[in-house]
Amino acid sequence: MNSLHDLKNLSDTLPRRAAKMPVLFVGHGSPMNAIEDNEFSLHWEKMGKTLPEPSAVLVISAHWLSKGTKVTAMENPKTIHDFGGFPKELFEVEYPAPGLPSLALETKNLIQSTEVELDHDWGLDHGTWSVVRRMFPEAKIPVLQLSIDYPRTGQYHYDLGKELAALREKGVLIIGSGNMIHNLRMVYWEKLNEPNFGYDWAHELNKTLKSKIESKSHNDLINYHSLGEAAKLAIPTPDHYFPLLYTLGLQSNSDDIEFFNDKLVAGSLNMTSIKIG
Predict the structure, then answer these.
(1) I need a labelling partner for 15 at 20 to 30 A (CA). Which of 58, 89, 211, 276 fits?
(2) How many CB atoms lie within 10 A of CB 193?
(3) How confident is the model at residue 26 (pLDDT cuts 50, 70, 90)?
């Protein structure tokens, strides 16, 4: 483990680039997408080939909820298998991407609204590695995670996302990984393989969210509770929704919006994803 003194000497080492790195919000869905070839995972692979090669990847995953904000700062983050009931093959997956302690410190220093803890215990959970291993299978690009301070409001997470903007200028690919519509209690498992099957309220909200994103109506998206009964059904808890707010906070006025993997799954989940910039 590097000392804080060593980290300070390493900080701010990524050079600026001529063009800003895009930002992604990825609907990650089932952990099985990490090993199955389907329309979602194959699009992640395509995205990895078409994006500029990142200097590093920073992921805000729905599966690292904390009290306070933390960033992984180890040189070799472990692969976390934070799920149950899946095939042995999935538990055997390792994604040995390196960390980047200097970037962890730079991220900590960029965020002025709260104290950020340098974390050496977490690693890469499936909200991160299930997506990133399909995009960058060689596992050579450094990967970090930023935790979600779960008791905080949507506005807090949106504003914190804004504070990360300078990283885009250094080639850091920032990914919010969750699902905008995520109600596991209402999943219709028998319809799992039916293309784009969703309850009426799920289709309604998916359309509303995309419209709000396209029109940059960020206040409505921050205050998602105001989006009616459909939002209450689609977002019973905000863990998978909060990563979206980080990515929206990073959107500039000149950034284009592109939706991909825009499908409903098993009634009450959506895979709708966004490329910003």
Answers:
(1) 276
(2) 10
(3) very high
